[in-house]
Specification:
214 residues; mainly beta; Jelly Rolls; 5-stranded antiparallel beta sheet; 2 helices; 13 strands; globular; Glycosyl hydrolase; hydrolase; AL/BT2_dom; hydrolase activity; signal
């Protein structure tokens, strides 16, 4: 109940002052450390789909600080992918996950992973409170709200993860994880959105983002 009330307060406070949502169609993305979308991605209108090995991760052309991101996704059987935020792009950061926290996408049924790596998790740090995924072949609806240090992960209408990136709890979890080896991880409060190519077919569509006030 407390989590629900906190979520409602966060949304009502920010939504009143938010800008209109923007559709992040195929023209709004490029490959990480590149200038265009690789042939491994099929980009048509509002749909982006991994169709070949080695497609590479995509990042938004613009950067975002505080935002409300919604997107639909469909994963293959046993598939794994993710959406990252506050991603930095510098020559020394070879992967998006060196800097960006990940909203995990997964076929929970077809892939036996621990709770910290299931769909909706902040990958390897915070597990979802419940499994609200739809069967493989159906689209899921996700929502990622970032307001300052406060972050919420929603999955098919349910708040499944919430955390404070400035808290001692968050810092302790990072320090005890593999991310402790990457100084850029979650270090910035503005950056790109990224769509992960994890080697499995995945489809994204209707990706919309609303900038929220500071």
């Amino acid at each position: 109940m407390k989590a629900f009330l906190a979520a409602a307060l966060l949304f009502s406070t920010t939504a009143a002052c938010a800008e209109e949502s923007t559709l992040l169609d195929a023209s709004q993305w490029r490959r990480y450390q590149s200038t265009d979308i690789s042939a491994g991605w099929e980009a048509k209108g509002e749909t982006l789909r991994v169709i070949a090995k080695g497609a590479g991760d995509l990042i938004s052309k613009e950067t975002y600080r505080n935002f409300d991101l919604t997107f639909e996704w469909k994963i293959s059987e046993g598939g794994n992918s993710g959406v990252f935020f506050h991603v930095q792009e510098t020559p020394d950061l070879k992967q998006v996950y060196f800097s960006g926290p990940e909203y995990q996408l997964l076929d929970n049924v077809g892939r036996d992973e621990p709770p910290l790596e299931q769909a909706g998790a902040l990958f390897a740090l915070y597990a979802p409170t419940e499994d609200t995924t739809k069967p493989v072949g159906e689209f899921n609806t996700s929502r990622l709200i970032v307001q300052g240090d406060t972050v919420e992960h929603w999955l098919n209408g349910k708040l499944v993860v919430s955390y404070d990136m400035g808290s001692q709890d968050f810092k302790a979890k990072v320090a005890a994880s593999k991310f402790s080896n990457w100084p850029a991880f979650a270090a910035k409060r503005e950056g790109h959105i990224a769509l992960q190519d994890h080697g499995d077919p995945v489809t994204f569509r209707n990706i919309r983002i609303t900038r929220l006030p500071d």
